């Protein structure tokens, strides 16, 4: 069994969402596992001197045009959320807390969070909003609030983000296959080819 | 006859070079002309708050890895030049000067310039270096020096760059098909599909 593929993403990134719809099936075709790794993209942007597309002159208008166009091309549901980029701290911390007990539940939560935020255009910045998704996985309001107040849970996300930046991650999505880095939803065809051929 | 496709690029951009190897054949399959439009990407970066990939932490190392990998995937010749990004002022001014008398010669010059810089890794920043390419099109040293000292020639490139920024261009390559903008060499498949289908 080969090593799993690392799939780094930011919940507030629509290209991360679009890639999340394809990455597992691409990997499965080559009998590879995928580890989903949400990070705080803001920290990676700070490290690489980038700013969010949505807020940049010229790039902003293109972004709001390219994202829906890319979604339509994939037949992926997409409704632009009210706040772009949203604050994904609560969502990402919840993910890593779930991950440490059950990776499958954590992935199901990530998919549901992406669907709510990008598929349905719902803001997912607050604990109450994240609870709308987490609740469907049997997590209670009290449990989620206690979890998100836990310094260890906060540190977990910080550590994962630092580790990602240390591995060269600066955007979302960012896929690493056997040490080979691929940035962007538009690199998934290359990821697939890399898996098929072992590189070129 | 439909309107031509606008192909904006920066000579110092390797993704512009890679796109230049495909754009004409993609357009020709749909009986469309392409107007090649070199710009000063630095001005567009200033307008959009971007910095060159090569100089950015994290993005720089990825860039120097992704560019050769993308070239190998296309079987395109690529030798990393000594200075990235080079100063493309002389090359771009020469292009627009040629363009105003003969678009085909201008395109031939652009292709030869790209080949020298990215295909063979030769710096093309100075007038003498540009002359190595321009000379093969029958342009003499005296003629090129006089041209590049002409304020009208300098203004021509500035006007083209301003017009591109006004049309929303912020990166290289940047293709506009019937008003529809596509940024990046990795959007050429979408350009082709747009030409084939008229949009989605």
Characterise this structure.
The structure is a homodimer of 200-residue chains. Chain A is an alpha+beta fold. Chain A has a single domain, classed as Glutaredoxin. Chain A has helices at 14-20, 23-28, 41-48, 59-74, 89-99, 103-119, 127-134, 141-148, 151-166, 188-197; strands at 5-9, 34-38, 174-177, 180-183. In chain A, a hairpin with a 2-residue loop joins β3 (174-177) and β4 (180-183). Chain A is globular. Chain A binds chain B through residues 44, 47-51, 56-59, 61-62, 65-66, 69, 72-73, 165, 168-170, 181, 183-184, 186-187, 190, 193, 200, and chain B through 44, 47-51, 56-59, 61-62, 65-66, 69, 72-73, 165, 168-170, 181, 183-184, 186-187, 190, 193, 200.
The CATH topology of chain A: Glutaredoxin
SSE order of chain A, one letter for each helix or strand: EHHEHHHHHHHEEH
* Largest sheet report of chain A: 4 strands, mixed
Distinct helical segment count of chain A = 10
- What structural class do the secondary elements of chain A suggest? alpha+beta
Radius of gyration of chain A (Å): 16 Å
Q: Mean of the pLDDT scores of chain A?
A: 97
* Fraction in helix of chain A: 40-55%
CATH superfamily of chain A: Glutaredoxin
Overall structural domain count of chain A: 1
What is the CATH level 1 assignment of chain A? Alpha Beta
Quick structural overview:
The structure is a homodimer of 200-residue chains. The first copy, chain A, is of the alpha+beta class.
Question: Which tags fit this structure?
Answer:
homodimer; 200 residues; alpha+beta
């Amino acid at each position: 069994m080969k090593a799993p593929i690392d799939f780094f993403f930011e919940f507030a990134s629509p290209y991360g969402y679009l890639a999340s719809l394809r990455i597992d099936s691409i990997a499965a075709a080559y009998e590879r596992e995928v580890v989903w790794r949400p990070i705080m993209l803001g920290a990676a942007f700070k490290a690489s001197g980038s700013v969010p597309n949505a807020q940049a002159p010229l790039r902003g208008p293109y972004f709001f045009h390219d994202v829906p166009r890319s979604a339509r091309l994939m037949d992926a549901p997409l409704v632009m959320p009210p706040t772009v980029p949203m604050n994904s701290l609560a969502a990402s911390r919840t993910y890593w807390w779930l991950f440490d007990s059950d990776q499958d539940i954590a992935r199901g939560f990530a998919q549901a969070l992406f669907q709510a935020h990008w598929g349905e255009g719902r803001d997912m910045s607050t604990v109450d909003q994240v609870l709308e998704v987490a609740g469907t996985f049997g997590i209670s309001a009290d449990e989620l609030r206690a979890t998100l107040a836990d310094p260890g849970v906060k540190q977990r996300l910080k550590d994962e983000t630092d580790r990602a930046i240390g591995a060269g991650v600066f955007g979302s999505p960012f896929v690493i296959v056997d040490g080979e880095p691929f940035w962007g939803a538009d690199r998934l065809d290359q990821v697939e080819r890399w898996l098929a051929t072992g590189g070129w």
